[in-house]
Amino acid sequence: MYRVSSFVPRLAQALLGGAVLATVWVNLAPASYYDSIEWRLLDLNLPDWLAPLPISLTPMSLVSDGLMALFLFVVGKELWEALVLEHGALKGRQAVLPVGMVLGGMIGAVLVWVLVGSLIETAEEAGFATGWQVPLGSDVVLCFLVGRAIFPRGSLALHLLLLLATATDILALLIAGLTHPAVSLRLAWLALPVVAALGVWLAFGRPPSPDAPERHRRARDRLLPYVLAGLLSWIGVAASGLPPALGLLPVIPAIAHADRSFGLFAEVEELLHDPLNRLAQALAWPLTGILFLFGLTRGGVDLSAFAPTTVTVLAALWLGRPVGMLLLGLGLIAALRLRLPPGLSLRDILRVVLILGMGFTVPVLALDIALPGGAMQEAARLGLALSLAAGALALATRPRAGNTDP
What we know:
- This protein is mainly α.
- It has helices spanning 7-28, 30-37, 59-84, 96-120, 140-150, 156-178, 191-205, 214-220, 224-240, 275-298, 308-335, 346-355, 361-370, 375-387, 389-395, and strands at residues 42-44, 55-57.
- It is 61% helix and 1% strand.
- A two-stranded antiparallel ribbon has the order 1-2.
- Helix 1 (7-28) packs across helix 2, helix 4 packs across helix 6 and helix 6 packs across helix 12 (346-355).
């Protein structure tokens, strides 16, 4: 079994560090905290065809909409490799269990959110099913941090955990963006990322012919064309109304890449020299600072914000998601008369499902899209913070002996 790169737990620690600092700050001096993260650095009045509403650049928006696109680029790279490359984890019959668990978890979370919200939600600004997008996402780095402390070295369960968290996060943010009310007005802007990706693929990314000149082969390894294509893609996605954090995903398939997958966040990829892996390697250390800043600007939890929305979040993550994952994931295995992969037990799956009861990074990104601002968002953020207790519960189930180093 492959080793996971050491930068993944470092990202989790940076995220937690920023969130803890922000939580202390927001509870001791809330006015100072909100003034700092919402400080207007620059007001932009762009043409209506580019941005229908005025844009204010703040520390929070720069991190969430700009820098977090780099984080999702690395996460999206791993998911894409799992889907299309040789030995990818989402190819063939081996995809049945993770696909079923991802879809089941999302369906279960939404159904419980709607049910519980309709029973106990009392916020005046809440309509029927308001905020159902919030519990769709998970948290790749925090789930891995817990998972590597539970599963022994070489465990297939850790790979499954990373796969489920990665797929869930990307799909959740896509759904959140596509269900935003303003998206349908500006979808023509998505032509820009399509053109950028297609252009850079035709010029640099596609495999060279056997008789291609050496200069063409060298040009394929340059990073600058892919960076420029990513910038154009980000502009198009942001102008379309989708979450700008998704802006770099369209160019991932266009970037020259390795021929096979070595596993999600595999350490061996640090030795590869194809442009896609080089870009991911170049982001490893910057992402540590980005995740810290994200925790600092979006992870401040008001401990007095408890409200019905807090309960709704916890019910969706702790009840809806695990039940849905188990029913649909294991149900598909039984319906297709398949067996669990060798080395993966039902107990492992139960632990994976328990860890995935945590939700933070992507659900926090979805708050602005899914919920009205103010008390309802703060109550949901508190619920997301409390959901991390699922990780502590999962840690209590770990074996007493054995090497847990991934």
